[in-house]
């Protein structure tokens, strides 16, 4: 469950740039969108690994 935390806050200082752009969007926006899409996957993997 540390993956979402690291994606959102840990890497923020490194991707907080206006340039370069990815698909016409700032890197920060693309990074946060990717982190938002990967968070449910991380939660699902955690739940799957913790079936008792």
Q: How many beta-strand elements? A: 2
Low-pLDDT parts are none
Number of helices: 3
The portion of residues forming beta strands comes to 5-15%
Q: Could you give the order of the helices and strands?
A: HHEEH
Major beta sheet, strand line-up:
1-2
Shape: elongated
Share of helix, binned: 55-70%
C-alpha termini separation: 17 Å
What does the average pLDDT come to? Answer: 85
Helix-strand makeup class: mainly alpha
Largest sheet: 2 strands, antiparallel
C-alpha Rg (nearest Å): 13 Å
Structure notes:
By secondary structure, the protein is mainly α. Helix content is 69%, strand content 8%. A two-stranded antiparallel sheet has the order 1-2. The mean pLDDT is 85.
What layout of secondary structure does this protein have?
Elements: H1 2-10, H2 12-15, E1 21-22, E2 25-26, H3 27-49
Antiparallel strand pairs: 1-2
What labels would you give this structure?
52 residues; mainly alpha; 69% helix; elongated
Quick structural summary:
It is built from three helices and two strands. The chain has about 50 residues and is mainly alpha-helical. A hairpin with a 2-residue loop joins strand 1 and strand 2 (about 25).
